[in-house]
Every structure is written in structure tokens, then in C-alpha cells.
Design brief:
The chain is α/β, with parallel strands linked by helices. It has two domains: 1-31; 35-272, 3-Layer(aba) Sandwich (Rossmann fold), CATH 3.40.50. Helix content is 40%, strand content 17%. It has helices at 2-23, 27-30, 37-44, 73-85, 95-99, 105-108, 115-130, 147-158, 216-223, 254-272, and strands spanning 48-51, 59-65, 89-93, 135-145, 177-183, 203-208, 231-236. It has a seven-stranded mixed beta sheet with strand order 1-3-2-4-5-6-7, with helices on both faces. β6, α9 (216-223) and β7 form a beta-alpha-beta unit. α7 (115-130) crosses α8 (147-158). The longest helix has 22 residues, at 2-23. It is globular. It comes from Metapseudomonas resinovorans NBRC 106553. Residues 51-270 form the Dienelactone hydrolase domain. This is Dienelactone hydrolase domain-containing protein.
Length: 276
């Protein structure tokens, strides 16, 4: 019996070591540095970019969360062009700059800054936004792209409870949020969306049927367990990742892009009220 036990224990030890070595590259994502809301606000505040329409405020405002590759000038220009024109103020939240992340590839590879850790940025950005007199704090919306979509959906799911790498922020963390728009979000493990939506803000989600980066089927599976009463899902069968704007992926499709933009503006008008 002892002769059999020794090889088994050695095999188990080797398997455990192999598993730990396999997880080692993901240590920063698995074990993030803890940050409470105050620390998150202080870290994030210098990296918020705020744009307003020509009219006088306070404005209904859309907080925008970039994808895993970061916040490029092209991304900012693309998004703010149609939101400002419609009369909404726009606040861009640069989560990478706030953490000193210059190489985006570990984020996209899942080795750093998961969306469920980044959810604290949603609460922190909202807290800063509410203090801005140019912002109508009762009419706020969240807009996230890919990793940013994962981020805002997880913030909605946590709804101020303790999350991955941060303590509870309280049930008022999402006060003023009246709508959430997610473009091609990541919904697989370890996204928290599968646990349910804690906050009741209506959600508009756009998915591409030929997305080669985020699997839209994972989102569909996650949504099966959620209450769909306040969820609008739009699928574009032939659309790829970043179908809605020009990018380095060269996947822009004018038809779906224009339709999604029209739907997004209608959603904002319905839930935030007229911008003007």
C-alpha cells in the first residue's frame, strides 16, 4: 500500500506545482491590490476627461469606459462626436492611466486588471461626477466597450457590495445611473454578471455574431439567467468586434454602426430624458 501511496503523492505534488506555475502569470489579476472608494477616487480623478456641449449646463452625462487596449485619441474622438452632437456631456474614464498601465497586452490577455476589479472605477468616477456642477447628477448613464462593458456590467451586478479587490461601497454607489449601454462586452469567467444584476437600471447590449475577440455566446448564456424586463439585446449577425467605429482591427461596419448609434441615442433619450 505504501509503495502505491508514494507515487500518488508525488504525482499530486507535481500536478499542484504545475497548476501553480500555470496561474503565476495571472497573479496580478487573481490577487489585485485592495483599494477602497476614497483611494480609487484619488487615483482616478486626474485621469477623467470631461467634454460638454455648447449649451449651458448642468448636462445629462454619459461616463465612458474604454476597452482592454486603452483609451486612444481616436476612441475619444469617435465616441464624443455623436454624444456631444446629441447634447450629452461626456466623461471618459482612463483606467489604464490611473494605474500607470502602459502595456495593454497583459490586460487583454487576462493577466492584469479584470473587469470585476475595475468595477471600483465605475463607483469612483460616479462619485467624482456628482461633485461637478456642470453635471446633472440625477441623469447619468454608463457606456462601456468590450472590457469596459464587462466593467460596467459587473459594477451593476455588485451594486455597491464588496467586489474583486475592493470593499463594499454602499447601495448608493450607483445613485443617478438611469441607463447602461454595453458594446460587445466580455461575459465569460470571471465576469460577475452571471450572478445577477443587483441594480435595476435598464441595460442596452450590442453583440456581434462574428466577434473573434469576445464570445457573444457567453453573454447569451449569462443573460438566460437574468430578468430580461429591463434588458434590451441587439445582435448583428455578421458584425465583428469593434464594428461600430474605425480602429486598428479594421472591423468597422457602417450599417450596424449607424443602427447601434441610433438605438443608443434613443435609449439615452428614453431613460435620461431630452438632452436639450
Amino acid at each position: 500500500m505504501r509503495k502505491l501511496l508514494k507515487p500518488v503523492l508525488i504525482a499530486l505534488l507535481l500536478l499542484t506545482c504545475a497548476a501553480l506555475l500555470g496561474l503565476y502569470p495571472y497573479r496580478a489579476a487573481l490577487l489585485p491590490q485592495t483599494a477602497d472608494l476614497t483611494v480609487a477616487e484619488q487615483r482616478l480623478a486626474p485621469h477623467l476627461s470631461f467634454f460638454t456641449p455648447q449649451d449651458s449646463g448642468p448636462f445629462p452625462t454619459v461616463l465612458v469606459f474604454h476597452g482592454c487596449s486603452g483609451q486612444s485619441p481616436l476612441f475619444v474622438r469617435n465616441v464624443k462626436s455623436w454624444l456631444l452632437q446629441a447634447g450629452y456631456a461626456v466623461m471618459f474614464v482612463d483606467s489604464h492611466a490611473a494605474r500607470g498601465i502602459k502595456d495593454w497586452r497583459p490586460v487583454c490577455d487576462g493577466k492584469r486588471l479584470w473587469g470585476n476589479e475595475r468595477a471600483i472605477d465605475v463607483y469612483a468616477a460616479l462619485a467624482v461626477a456628482r461633485e461637478n456642477p456642470a453635471i446633472d447628477a440625477t441623469r447619468l448613464a454608463l457606456l462601456g466597450y468590450s472590457h469596459g462593458g464587462w466593467t460596467i456590467l459587473d459594477a451593476l451586478s455588485y451594486d455597491g457590495s464588496a467586489g474583486h479587490g475592493f470593499p463594499a461601497t454602499g447601495k448608493d454607489a450607483l445613485t443617478g445611473v438611469r441607463g447602461v449601454i454595453a458594446y460587445y462586452p466580455y461575459c465569460g469567467f470571471p465576469a460577475h454578471l452571471r450572478e445577477g444584476r443587483g441594480h435595476i437600471a435598464p441595460v442596452l447590449m450590442f453583440l456581434g455574431g462574428k466577434d473573434h475577440i469576445t464570445d457573444h455566446e457567453q453573454c447569451l448564456a449569462a443573460l438566460d439567467s437574468l430578468d430580461g424586463a429591463r434588458l434590451e439585446l441587439v445582435q448583428y449577425g455578421d458584425a465583428d468586434h469593434v464594428f461600430d467605429q474605425r480602429s486598428d482591427l479594421n472591423t468597422y461596419q457602417p450599417g450596424p454602426a449607424e443602427d447601434a448609434q441610433r438605438r443608443a441615442l434613443a435609449f439615452l433619450h428614453e431613460n435620461l430624458g431630452p438632452a436639450q
